[in-house]
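Hi everyone,

Forwarding the result from last night's run.
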Amino acid sequence: MKVRYALGGALFGALFALSLHSTLCLAAPRPISFVALRSEPVPLAFFRSNTLEGGILKDLGEAIAEKLHTTAVFVTIPRLRIDDALARGEVDAICDARPEWYGSRLNWSAPIFVNANVLIMRNGATAVSRFEQLRGKTVGGVFGYVYPDLDAQVGGAYRRDDAPTMVNSIMKLQAGHIDYAVVNKITFDWELRTNPELRSFPALTIRQYQAQCGFSPAGNISFAQASRAVDELIKDGTVERILARYR
């Protein structure tokens, strides 16, 4: 009888441990997935082939995931598929974004950091002090990007010469293929560190904007929790520390 009770107790203990392990596995939070836009410029994103390997957005995504007690995954999606992927919940979130840039109805976090779109001019090009002067001119942009502020000020009366990334636009500018290009200030400041020639290129701010994270209503993550995580990262200085690494 003692042997039977001992065996029964051991079997019960094993079954309980297995049940507990299964429950914990089922309760483990799902990873949060972020859009990794291949055309996102440095230092916001550093890619090797199609894999996001570093940058502000990777650091930020991982910090948000840590606050949510989960892990972050970064999904490379073409710019023209982002709206559909977010609407369907194929990916949970996109950061360094603004509501007016995307057609999807997303839930938006508080502003996370300040950036700006700037018009940079090739040294020797006709100087522009008002955006109306770009009418009839060719301006470098990025495939799939929209520039509502520039369009509103120029009236759409300019030609676009798009490149895969902002850095490619800067290279075209330096090579003399175009006279003007739109880049974001964080990227331009980063390039100035290693490309001193750009210091002679005048820059004119189109519009300063506050970058946010947009969360899919169809995603796997609670927006209330995600929004609270972003708020905490801003409040505890994590966002500022991330940005400081790339200045």
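The radius of gyration is 24 Å.

Cheers,
N.
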